[in-house]
Specification:
The chain is an alpha+beta fold and 88 residues long. The chain has one domain: Winged helix-like DNA-binding domain superfamily/Winged helix DNA-binding domain (Arc Repressor Mutant, subunit A), CATH 1.10.10.10. The protein has a 3-stranded antiparallel β-sheet with strand order 1-3-2. Helix 4 packs across helix 5. The protein starts with a helix and ends with a strand.
Length: 88
């Protein structure tokens, strides 16, 4: 049974199992955040070499399954800093 099917049945899917059914770009972003810790959206785009629009989509999908956390940057409040919210 896939993570999506489990989630639709009301079973909470956490950890890397929640990321398993996501697009490859979301998996790449998750791995980059696992390796680098915290990054801004532009930092993720630079590290992954993905277009900013693809990074935004990947982050949205990861936030839907509670795989990433975001907060405002202390150095620039216009930016958000993303971190992986699941255990490695």
């Amino acid at each position: 049974m896939s993570a999506t099917e489990l989630a639709s049945e009301g079973t909470e899917v956490v950890g890397w199992d929640a990321v398993a059914d996501l697009p490859p770009s979301a998996k790449l972003v998750a791995k980059v955040l696992e390796y680098n810790g915290q990054l801004t959206q532009s930092g993720i785009a630079e590290e992954t070499m993905l277009p900013p629009r693809t990074v935004r989509y990947a982050l949205t999908r990861l936030e839907e399954v509670d795989a990433v956390e975001s907060r405002f940057s202390f150095t620039d409040a216009r930016k958000r800093v993303y971190a992986l919210a699941i255990d490695a």
